[in-house]
Specification:
The protein is an alpha/beta fold. About 30% of the residues lie in helices and about 25% in strands. It has seven helices and 13 strands. The longest helix has 14 residues. The chain is elongated.
Length: about 210
């Protein structure tokens, strides 16, 4: 969910080549895409304080941009390096044109393995297609073992996967509250939890 990653290094940003060995190396202030041209600038570069050099930083940048997150490479030497970035703007900033929410949901839909399944009724299915969150009252059955924050898939009564999302409750807690309205969750579990099993912002409907 981060919107900015700052990498503090022994170099103040990305150059067209290693400035420590090439006097003609040009500083790059902004990058909006990590392509072959950009990665070629990092070939044979190294760092005295890290093992990955600039190539590893660019791999991190690509992950960030794909997720709709900005990234900065800046000098980490000396006192107050973050303050220095704000004062003199000396850094390379990687800017993404992707929407963070859409990128996050794209990641949910295919990048990680679901650890459980929630089977929902027709009313819950209709609610999901209207952009609503998944409530416990609409869940008929739970399979698998998961904890809060794990990815689960959501199936309709025919067994078709209709959504995937990050669940708010463990499989043990979820089994106790399925079929129950949200206002009864506190009395069943003994604490005030979330009203939803899966919030719409943490779910992608297939």
């Amino acid at each position: 969910g981060a919107d900015l990653l700052i990498l503090l290094s022994d170099i103040d940003g990305l150059y067209t080549s290693d400035p420590r060995v090439d006097e003609k190396a040009e500083f790059i202030e902004m990058v909006d895409k990590v392509d072959d041209k950009i990665t070629s600038f990092a070939k044979d570069s190294s760092s005295s304080v890290g093992t990955g050099g600039m190539i590893t930083k660019l791999l991190a940048a690509k992950i960030c941009l794909d997720a709709g997150c900005k990234m900065i490479i800046a000098l980490g030497k000396g006192m107050n390096p973050i303050k220095r970035i704000l004062e003199d703007n000396r850094c390379t900033i990687f800017v993404s044109d992707k929407n963070p929410i859409k990128a996050f949901k794209s990641w949910l839909s295919g990048s990680i393995k679901p650890l459980g399944t929630l089977v929902i009724d027709d009313n819950a299915l209709k609610a999901l297609h209207k952009g609503k969150s998944l409530l416990a009252v609409g869940v008929k059955k739970i399979t698998g073992k998961f904890v809060q924050g794990d990815l689960v898939e959501v199936k309709d009564l025919k067994g078709v996967v209709v959504a995937k999302g990050l669940v708010y409750y463990s499989h043990i807690e979820a089994k106790r509250i399925i079929g129950k309205p949200s206002n009864e969750i506190e009395s069943i579990l003994g604490y005030k939890g979330e009203d939803e099993l899966i919030h719409r912002d943490h779910m992608v409907v297939m």
